[in-house]
Amino acid sequence: MKYLKQIIGIIAILLIGIFVGKIVFQDTHEHTEEELAADGSIEWTCSMHPQIRQKQPGDCPICGMDLIKASEVSETGNSNTFSMTKNAMVLANIETLKVGESEMNSEDASKTVFGKIQIAEDLEETQPAHYSGRIEKLYINYLGQKVNKHDKIAEVYSPELLVAQKEFLKVAENKEKQPDLYKAVYNKLKLWKLTDKQIQQIESSKKIMDYIPIYAHVSGIVTEQMVKDGDHIMDGKAIFKVANLEKVWAVMDVYESDISKFKVGDKMKINTKAYPNENFEGEITFIHPTVDKLKKTVKVRLELNNKKGFWKPEMLVNANLLPSKETIPEEEIIIPKTAVLWTGKRSIVYVKTKDAQPHFELKEVIVAPYSENSYKVHQGLNPDDQVVVSGTFTVDAAAQLQGKKSMMKLSAKQDLEQSEKESLNLLVDDYLKIVDNLVKGNEKEVNILVKKTKEESDRILKQNKNEKIKDLLKNVNHQFHIFANQTSLEGHRKVFNNLTNSMVALVEKVSLDRKLNVFHCPMANSNEGGNWINDKSEVLNPYFGDAMLSCGTLENELN
């Protein structure tokens, strides 16, 4: 009993000691935190919004994220360089890629060119008329019709053949006495492409054919039809054209600056929106010896097997040189288009530094289109730089919030008076309505809107007092006048890119308090490419409408 009481006493003393020690140490920790907070040694900030600074932990008043200690966010004195926490990078889905890594030099980043399927000219033939007359019955009724050699294609009434038949019958009565004359008249009918069977039938029946059958001397698919029932034909003029489509050409436009990359015999991978899940391969068989003086491109021709009938003439295609050591020289720096932000004519990228803490630096670069999804960098990057390729706008926003150099600071937008802003917004609204009706192919409505918008542009230019945007307004006004002078939907679409670019230059320079997106279609304007502005995020192509409604990519965001 005595020992039991001693054991209980010892246990009680130990429990009291543990309890007192816990209180003492906890009080000391809390006391230290309070003291540090009181003298300003600890500040709390948001990893996504570093301008937030508080003396106590809690939630960010902007995004609601848990605040972190400011000491955990590294600072840098470089005006172009700023930091982001690893947590913020994960939340913003920011990805970087080292210049020169295999992903950049992959097949997708190889030189992409655009063109269309054409009939192989060496397999195209014409069915001409061999005498003059009137078509009484035409058996070739539609494009795409299959024609075989010796098929009857028409019946023709020809006064000159009536005379020739009468002459032949008269000579045939005395062919024994005048064999040379008979032979000459007989051959005359043959030169008009009458068959031996037809001529012998005339001679044996001693009857003139009022309507002469015409038989095809070519085979193929009808690609062009020049006449219809009741039309008059003339000696030597074409009736229709046919082509053998078992072999076709893919004719691609290559910029003269890139032509050195292409050689006869090179293999190319070919894609088309008609068969998005299939890849085709072709070989370069001909490179045109001259440069198009307007487009500054060279025609490169591929021959494609078409026995299965996949390829249709005028079908739009794009092609990539298949990977080879010569496809992308090692000294070239190629980056994805997603890495580049545009501030008017200037372009920038964000490069991740090699520090342990994630730091980013803004760099201005000079780039040129390299493929559908990439740019070639002429100046501004080094081969081992690690560029931001996803979440670029988020990185730029972080730079703005931390007061660092950013795309927005480079843009230097002009502040406008409220009346000026309202006028320009009306102009933008009219432009967006034009875009909408180009998408729908509504030519009548486009013509109505163009007239109204041209007058609106004239008025705004006349009332403008802001010298800093005067030249931009003049250009917009000039392009609206050119646009208004077009008389067809096709004509409007041909000059629409110039109008859009003038609008982009203006909107980039001013603050209109609205979000606008700039889209790009590489196949517009005969594969020269074309831009358009929309306030929607969906790709709605005004250059092709329903034919290629989703052709295009989001290139930039304005305001």
Sheet with the most strands?
8 strands, antiparallel
Number of beta-strand segments:
27
N- to C-terminal distance: 87 Å
Mean pLDDT: 79
What is the count of DSSP helices, taking H or I runs of 4+ residues?
Answer: 12
Structural class: alpha+beta
What is the 3D form?
elongated
- The stretches of 5 or more residues where confidence is low (pLDDT under 50) are 22-38, 73-77, 102-109
Radius of gyration, in angstroms, nearest whole number: 38 Å
How many domains? The number is 6
Question: Percent helix among the residues?
Answer: 25-40%
User: What is the percentage of strand-forming residues?
Assistant: 25-35%
Description:
- With 559 residues, the chain is of the alpha+beta class.
- The chain folds into 6 domains: 1-41; 44-73, no CATH class; 88-108 and 330-411, conserved putative lor/sdh protein from methanococcus maripaludis s2 fold; 111-120 and 245-321, Beta Barrel (Elongation Factor Tu (Ef-tu), domain 3); 122-243, OB fold (Dihydrolipoamide Acetyltransferase, E2P), CATH 2.40.50.100; 418-558, no CATH class.
- It has helices spanning 2-38, 86-91, 159-172, 179-191, 196-205, 392-401, 407-411, 418-440, 443-463, 470-484, 489-509, 524-527; strands at residues 44-45, 68-69, 81-83, 95-98, 112-119, 124-128, 133-138, 146-147, 152-157, 211-215, 220-225, 232-233, 238-243, 247-255, 267-271, 280-287, 297-305, 316-321, 333-336, 341-343, 346-352, 359-371, 374-379, 386-390, 516-521, 530-534, 553-558.
- Strands 3, 4, 19, 20, 21, 22, 23 and 24 form an 8-stranded antiparallel β-sheet that branches.
- β21 (346-352) and β22 form a beta hairpin.
- α3 packs antiparallel against α4 (179-191), α9 runs antiparallel to α10 and α10 runs antiparallel to α11 (489-509).
- The longest helix has 37 residues, at 2-38.
- It starts with a helix and ends with a strand.
- 28% of the residues are buried.
- Mean pLDDT is 79; it is low at 22-38, 73-77 and 102-109.
